[in-house]
Write a structure and sequence with these properties.
Blueprint lengths: L5 H15 L4 H76 L37 H6 L3 H7 L8 H8 L9
Length: 178
Amino acid sequence: MFDLGISKMALIGAVALIVIGPEKLPRVARTVGTLLGKAQRYVNDVKAEVNRSMELDELRKMKDSVESAARDVESTIRTNASDFEKNLNDEAHGVKGALSGESSAGEDSFYTADPYAESYGSTASSVSPVYQHPRKNWRVKRGATPQWYKHRAGVRTHVQSGAARVARFRPKSRGPKA
């Protein structure tokens, strides 16, 4: 920007000393310094705000691209799942119709028996198991309590013998008296 060397700074200082005077020069120099500091902080704040807005725009673009990719994956999974379910229902209705002797194309219920049970060597049709929520274990619940709460509530976290407990809380001796 400006090419200010030592000689130019000395010339500006000499002119300021002559024009302003030696009594007012320190106060003017402090004022100019504070104004320059404020200007630098303002410029730095503007630069930081511009950088933040640019990063925010980049993050928005990235978010949009990730959301579109997620939507594409979701749509392909849904179409594949619906095709698989349709094929499974068709196979189930075909097996059910073959077992009963007639084709029931009008039914729209989901067949829960395993159509491939005969290939596994099972004579009876096996039914898929129903999901059961695992029972909570009291040890797991007790282990989930934070250590700071146990300490505050006085829950013992370590096993300690009676003698060790007495020794722990025994008052400290002050040393030999002279």
